[in-house]
């Protein structure tokens, strides 16, 4: 037995808002069609938070399910890390709001903003706390209400996004768990995918393109995402001395089925070994990877002892991966 500490996933949970918006519903709002959306993105429908339902609400529900699955009480948590780019408030952080609602007051709690890579970033941070011995039981959440910054008259972006949250409870373990995480960012590509509204630059809701809308140069983002994910998959395999055929499941960020298929091809992995939820969830940003993971665990697809590769790419640009033995 090694004296190394790993972060083992003790339980997973997720939550989706009740309201479902189909492609046909969207075709009533903008000039689009189920055929266009499904063939370009793989998305058929997405969930949309109800009026008054916030990122904290989604995160709390996902967290409760993860705690229950792990058999962990909120009072046992040493740390809460929450990936989001749609916090309830500028401050306090959504992690603090969730902490209080869980009744876990006292442990450190903070948000990580890495757009769609938020959960993978948060997982990596949590893993480092556990490996260093600074924490033993950590709640990691990815939660978003991205539809709140969607311009429902803008067909190029409104068809892509949905709301949702996923969570995992990590526990220090001597045997198995997260083998490595890899994070990258390139702030030079800011304007290919961004929301220009801010605090320090001033709120300028009346300027062109500066309202609530997500600005995205879809084609360029697509190409950068495929390239960056190819590279990070190679980096992850190499760092662990693994052959690509040893991966049991790819659990990718769910932005676009064609991006997912490109990464699967790189891994020579049949699509039956790839967890796909984008058809029903759309792009839930930080929520997407833990939502997909939870679905794969609860459906019995992912089994204890299997090797999972998680990856994500998002605004920033940011991208990251995590290799773990479940
Ligand atoms: N319905 C019908 N037609 C549409 C729609 C729509 N919803 N949206 C765009 N079109 C039209 C365009 O106007 C264009 O028409 P034109 O040829 O007459 O000019 C045509 O369809 C093709 O548009 P493209 O933008 O070239 O379509 P593309 O095949 O690139 O697909 C998409 C667009 C789906 C956005 C794709 O580029 C993509 O998925 N990009 C990556 C998105 C992503 O991964 N984001 C990362 C994370 S997001 C985050 O971090 C918050």
Short overview:
The chain is an alpha/beta fold. It is built from 10 helices and 13 strands. A 5-stranded mixed beta sheet has the order 1-7-6-4-5, sandwiched between helices. A 4-stranded mixed beta sheet has the order 8-13-12-11, with helices on both faces.
What string gives the helices and strands in order? EEHHEHEHEHEHEEEEHEHHHEE
* Unreliably modeled segments: none
CATH topology of the largest domain, anyone?
Peroxisomal Thiolase, Chain A, domain 1
End-to-end Cα distance, whole Å, is 18 Å
Counting structural domains, the number is: 2
CATH superfamily of the largest domain, please?
Thiolase/Chalcone synthase
Whole-number mean pLDDT: 95
In DSSP terms (H or I, runs of 4 or more residues), the helix count works out at 10
Strands, total number? 13
Estimate what percentage of residues fall within beta strands.
15-25%
Using the coordinates above, name the CATH class of the largest domain. Answer: Alpha Beta
User: Outline, from the CA principal axes?
Assistant: globular
Say which molecules are bound, naming each kind only once: acetyl coenzyme *A
Work out the radius of gyration: 19 Å
What's the CATH architecture of the largest domain?
A: 3-Layer(aba) Sandwich
Q: Which percent range fits the helix content?
A: 25-40%
User: Biggest sheet: strands, sense, closure?
Assistant: 5 strands, mixed
What structural class do you assign from the helix and strand content? alpha/beta
Strands side by side in the biggest sheet? 1-7-6-4-5
């Amino acid at each position: 037995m090694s004296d190394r500490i790993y972060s083992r996933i003790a339980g997973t949970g997720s939550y989706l808002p009740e309201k479902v918006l189909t492609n046909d519903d969207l075709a009533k709002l903008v000039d689009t069609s189920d055929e266009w959306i499904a063939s370009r993105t793989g998305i058929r429908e997405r969930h949309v938070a109800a009026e008054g339902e916030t990122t904290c609400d989604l995160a709390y529900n996902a967290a409760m399910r993860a705690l229950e699955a792990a058999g962990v009480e909120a009072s046992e948590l040493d740390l809460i890390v929450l990936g989001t780019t749609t916090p309830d408030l500028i401050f306090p952080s959504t992690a603090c709001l969730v902490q209080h609602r869980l009744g876990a007051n006292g442990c450190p709690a903070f948000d990580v903003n890495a757009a769609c890579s938020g959960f993978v970033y948060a997982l990596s941070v949590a893993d480092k706390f556990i490996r260093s011995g600074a924490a033993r039981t950590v709640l990691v959440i990815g939660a978003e209400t991205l539809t709140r910054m969607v311009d429902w008259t803008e067909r190029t972006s409104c068809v892509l996004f949905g709301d949702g949250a996923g969570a995992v409870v990590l526990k220090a373990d001597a045997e198995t768990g997260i083998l490595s995480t890899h994070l990258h960012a390139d702030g030079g590509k800011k304007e290919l995918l961004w929301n220009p509204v801010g605090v320090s630059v001033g709120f300028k809701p009346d300027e062109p393109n500066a309202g609530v809308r997500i600005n995205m140069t879809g084609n360029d983002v697509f190409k950068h995402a495929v390239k960056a994910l190819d590279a990070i998959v190679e980096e992850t395999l190499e760092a662990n001395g693994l052959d690509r055929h040893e991966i049991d499941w790819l659990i990718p960020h769910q932005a676009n089925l064609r991006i997912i298929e490109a990464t699967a091809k790189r891994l020579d992995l049949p699509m039956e070994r790839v967890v796909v939820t984008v058809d029903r969830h759309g792009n839930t940003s930080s929520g997407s990877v833990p939502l997909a993971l939870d679905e794969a665990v609860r459906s019995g697809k992912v089994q204890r002892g299997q090797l999972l590769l998680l990856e994500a790419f998002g605004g920033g640009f940011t991208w990251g991966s995590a290799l773990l033995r479940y």
